[in-house]
Amino acid sequence: MLTVAGMGPGHLALMTPQALEAVAQADVLVGGKRHLAQFPTFGGEVRALDSDIPALLAWLEQQTARRVVVLASGDPLFYGIGTRLVAHFGIAQLQIIPGISAAQYLCSRTGIDMNDIWLTSSHGREVDFDRLAREPKVAMVTDARCGPKVIADALIARGAADRWLVIGENLGMDNERIQWLRPADVHAQYEMNVVVILNER
């Protein structure tokens, strides 16, 4: 059985008991280096997840007799590896264990309700900055190509310099940091982060 387990923002305390149990029962653990480092005593086989997804899919096809757990950042189906695995294998061949997304976590830490929020990501996609500037409330999972500074500059260029950016770095970890900034106050370097954009604080 192939299981995709949501890691939440990254700290084991934020994983569900079901996800932790799946890891404990696994023969093989697949994940990014940061995720695998959370399980230093895992006794089975470990495979690091890299950018070669086709190679991973081909390898997973050969592992049907083993209990394989793929660790996913946040929630597996919120711009995560789970989407690709469902498309390839079909949901009947998978067990998806949900996790807390970084956007959910940041909203819970700041008291921002999610009822009318536009959820998006810059991972592997072109960002619609025009829509970003129009939407009253946005949560975006960022990457190295499109981080807070790029978003802030795009908002300023579109006349939205009065928006608030809520930037959450290293969420759920010991070095977590959350800042409320106007676009003009956003600097260039942030660690792993998610951004919420608001019309008002």
TrEMBL record:
Signal peptide: none
GO MF entries: protein methyltransferase activity
InterPro entries cross-referenced by the UniProt entry: 4pyrrol_Mease, 4pyrrol_Methylase_sf, 4pyrrole_Mease_sub1, 4pyrrole_Mease_sub2, CbiE, Cobalamin_biosynth_MTase
Entry keywords, A to Z: Cobalamin biosynthesis, Methyltransferase, S-adenosyl-L-methionine, Transferase
GO biological process, one term: cobalamin biosynthetic process
Keyword Methyltransferase: yes
Pathway: Cofactor biosynthesis; adenosylcobalamin biosynthesis
Chain ranges of the Tetrapyrrole methylase domain: 1-178
Keyword S-adenosyl-L-methionine in annotation: yes
Protein name per the record: Precorrin-6Y C5,15-methyltransferase (Decarboxylating)
